[in-house]
């Protein structure tokens, strides 16, 4: 599901994107997360409670490919530079290992369509195994 508009707290002109009200986002998702079976796709993790997740996947991309990918999406200036720097310095991976038990954080390459297929297969296998082990 997509987040409702009232969970935004303005617009960031520099990055040209809405600003999330993190407290309202967590409040909105909490009930759904307790029910389980939810996948959260986000470019950060330090706002989400540790109790929500059994596994965390951080997708990694070669910097040259990432630059080209983001540029083709219309990213420019600071937004483009900051996103590439985040990848260079492994910012999201480090945030994930600080926010959650390091044992549940996994890096997956995301450079090619083949990587996408392998990642999907791995996530499906993990989900099936976890469900089997916990039911």
UniProtKB/TrEMBL annotation:
Gene Ontology MF terms: AMP kinase activity; ATP binding; ATP hydrolysis activity
Main location (coarse class): nucleus
Any Pfam family hit: AAA_18
Catalytic activity annotation: AMP + ATP = 2 ADP
Oxidoreductase is among the record's keywords: no
Subcellular location: Nucleus
GO process annotations (BP): rRNA processing
Keywords from the named record: ATP-binding, Cytoplasm, Kinase, Nucleotide-binding, Nucleus, Ribosome biogenesis, rRNA processing, Transferase
Gene Ontology CC entries for this record: cytoplasm; nucleus
Annotated protein name in UniProt: Adenylate kinase 6
